[in-house]
Structure formats: structure tokens, C-alpha cells
Design goal:
The chain is an alpha/beta fold. The chain folds into 2 domains: 127 residues, Enolase-like, N-terminal domain (Enolase-like, domain 1); 221 residues, Enolase-like C-terminal domain (TIM Barrel), CATH 3.20.20. Helix content is 34%, strand content 22%. Helix 1 crosses helix 3. Magnesium ion binds next to loops.
Length: 370
């Protein structure tokens, strides 16, 4: 398949609710959307980098820069037989996983559409529905947090994840358990603590949490290993595991018992699958993380979460948890049993609404073979 046309756009969609974590707040969703065109077919990919370098060093603008300056010239006009070939062509570029992933996703969508096969079938997914959880940001007070949890439980979400930071941790977990009893509950610290905070984790350890996500440094594996020895609650890594190699070290050191897989963070779907398989071999269950994606990124998440070792509810919520109006149709909907259906049409299996995409666009560039 010769890549003849690549379009980049930065879009902005209002979020229904401001999303606050230990590292920052987002009120609008910014995303870099890639379109690869061939005749009348289009493949779409979404770069999950955020506007700020606080979750990872990549941002929407670094992705725009590295894709247009270094990645597009390596793939435009080239003939790639399969997704592996495209990743190989980008190997020389160090890091920038989210940027690479967006291109790989767009290629994969187009590749599957051409072959008339759904992404789920291409990836050998084994599920028609995936389990849906919800990730709740830091709230102005405990009352609004409890109200939100009540709202999402009512909709049927299968597990609640709450963001924590120092002084918004043991106190909220205590109140949640008091109000809702033994609901499936976990916390995500986004690297807000160090080993000096051991006492916080000893206290959290009493609340039967499903797991504690990324409690320590964003690039740490050694202190997580130490912490995991000291508490019984499973540690789940997010930020610290960006590659198969990171994962090998994490397994060797026993730094985690669960892995959050985000396609963008790990540099694409093929890497995500390698990590899924390595975790399966080492009896580490995984689940799919989220980056407040639009329907495009969400479709890739839903497809990968249909693989067998995705053993926990995912940070893949319905479109209406994030946006009043998504850029895809049909939107992802939550079934009453807290699951989301995996699309069966070719490629990502959802349609992009051009008029909405256009309306959300802040900036656009097209690279074409003439
Ligand atoms: O750490 O999992 C995270 C969103 C942005 C950046 C980092 C994270 C998150 C989430 C949101 O938790 C999950 C979702 O998309 O619903
Ligand atoms: Mg996380």
C-alpha cells in the first residue's frame, strides 16, 4: 500500500467536565488527528499527547513537529505491505511514542478497511463486548466526588477509579467505602508520591482496593518494586512502562502486579500487543488505559481491550461521559451491564462525521505525493 496523502489536524472539543489530576487540569480535549488517504478510503488515527508535558514529555505540538518534520518524509510515497513495515520505517526516531502510534493507527485502520476486516478480528480479539470503568478526576470537595460516583454507578460502570494526590487520598477512600461499601474501587496517583509517603500506602492498603496505579515517580521501577514488597494491594503501572524493555525490567524487579496498557504511551498497537503477550506469559493481567480520547482513539482502545489478557474493567467509558457530541457515529454507548460493544465493521468500525471534525479543527496540514 503506497501512502500518497497524509493529513494532520489539531482539533479541540469541549469536555463535559474539567478533568483534574495530580499533574494538572483539562477543560477541553485537544487532539492531533491523522488521516491517511488512498483513493476513496481513509484511515484515521488519534495522537493522545496532551497540550502540556505533565503526563509525559510529548505534547500536541511536539507531535505535530516530529510527525511533519521527521515521520511524514519517512513514509510518504513508500510502499508498506503491513503495519510492521511502517513502524520499522520510524525506528530511527527515538521516543515520541504517541506520535508514532497515531500514524500506525491511521495506517492500520486503512489497512483493515482495504482488507474488509474489523480491527478486532485483525488483532484476534476474543470478546464482542469490553468491560467499562470510569476514571474520576479530583473534585472540589468530597460531596461532589460522592455524587459523581453515585451517578456513574447508577449508569452501570463496572469499576470506579479515583484520582488521588497528597491530602486527597486516604480521606476520600474512607468516605467512598463508607458510602458505597465494597464496590470495585481503585486509585491513580499519577506519580504524586515517593517512598517517604509509605504511611499513606499502608493506610490505603486497608481498604481492599483493586489496585493502586502509578503511585511513585513517572520513570521509576525500583521504588515501585520496594513498595510492592511492603503492601498487599497490587500496584498497577502506567507512566513508568513505555516499552517492552521497561516491562521486562518491571517483571524482573516485580515492580507491579497489573499493567495499564495505553496504545499511545507504548508506541502503537503492535507494541501494545507484544506487551499484552509478555504479561500473559508472566501472569500479569492488564487493562486498557485512556487519555480522554475522541471516538477515534476510543475505537482503537475498544478493539485492543477485546484481547484475552485484558482482565479488568478498562478506562474506556461511553462517549457521553466525555463529550456532548463526539466526532464519530454511532457514539460508544454503555450497555446496562456496564459493557461497550466492540464494532464489527471494517477498520475502527465507526464513521467520522466530517462536518463535526471540520468545526473542531484549529489547524490543518496536508502532505501529498504529486
Ligand atoms: O493516568 O490514566 C491516566 C487521562 C489523561 C491522562 C492520564 C490518565 C487519564 C485518565 C483518564 O485516567 C481515563 C479516561 O480516558 O477515561
Ligand atoms: Mg494512569
Amino acid at each position: 500500500m503506497i501512502i500518497r496523502e497524509i493529513e494532520l489536524r489539531i482539533i479541540s472539543l469541549p469536555l463535559k467536565r474539567t478533568f483534574e489530576t495530580s499533574f494538572g487540569r483539562e477543560s477541553v480535549k485537544r487532539a492531533l488527528i491523522i488521516t491517511i488517504r488512498e483513493n476513496d478510503l481513509e484511515g484515521f488515527g488519534e495522537c493522545v499527547a496532551m497540550p502540556t508535558p505533565y503526563y509525559s514529555y510529548e505534547t500536541v505540538n511536539t507531535a505535530w513537529y516530529v510527525i511533519s518534520e521527521f515521520m511524514v518524509p519517512r513514509i510518504l510515497g513508500k510502499d508498506f505491505k503491513k503495519p510492521e513495515d511502517l513502524i520499522k520505517a520510524l525506528e530511527r526516531i527515538r521516543g515520541h511514542n504517541m506520535a508514532k502510534s497515531a500514524l500506525e493507527c491511521a495506517f492500520l485502520d486503512l489497512f483493515c478497511k482495504k482488507a474488509g476486516i474489523s480491527l478486532k478480528d485483525y488483532l484476534r480479539g476474543v470478546r464482542n463486548k469490553i468491560e467499562s470503568g470510569v476514571s474520576i478526576g479530583i473534585q472540589p470537595n468530597i460531596k461532589s466526588l460522592l455524587d459523581l460516583i453515585d451517578h456513574y454507578l447508577d449508569k452501570g460502570y463496572r469499576r470506579i477509579k479515583v484520582k488521588i494526590k497528597p491530602n486527597w487520598d486516604v480521606n476520600i477512600v474512607r468516605e467512598i467505602r463508607k458510602e458505597f461499601g465494597e464496590i470495585p474501587l481503585m486509585v491513580d496517583a499519577n506519580a504524586a508520591y515517593s517512598l517517604a509517603d509509605l504511611e499513606v500506602f499502608r493506610l490505603l492498603d486497608r481498604y481492599n482496593l483493586m489496585m493502586i496505579e502509578q503511585p511513585l515517580g513517572y520513570d521509576d521501577l525500583i521504588d515501585h518494586s520496594e513498595l510492592q514488597r511492603l503492601i498487599k494491594t497490587p500496584i498497577c503501572l502506567d507512566e513508568s512502562v513505555k516499552s517492552v524493555n521497561d516491562l521486562k525490567v518491571a517483571i524482573k524487579l516485580r515492580s507491579c502486579k497489573v499493567l495499564n496498557i495505553k496504545i499511545g504511551r507504548v508506541g502503537g498497537i503492535l507494541n501494545a500487543i507484544k506487551m499484552h503477550d509478555l504479561c500473559l506469559k508472566n501472569r500479569i493481567p492488564v487493562w486498557c488505559g485512556g487519555m480522554l480520547e475522541t471516538g477515534i482513539g476510543r475505537a482503537f482502545n475498544v478493539a485492543i481491550a477485546s484481547l484475552p489478557n485484558f482482565k479488568f474493567p478498562n478506562d474506556i467509558s461511553a462517549s457521553d461521559r466525555y463529550f456532548d457530541e463526539d466526532i464519530i457515529e454511532p457514539p460508544f454507548m454503555l450497555n446496562r451491564d456496564g459493557t461497550i460493544n466492540v464494532p464489527t465493521k471494517p477498520g475502527i468500525g465507526v464513521d467520522i462525521v466530517k462536518e463535526r471534525l471540520e468545526r473542531a479543527t484549529l489547524k490543518k496540514a496536508v502532505f501529498k505525493l504529486d
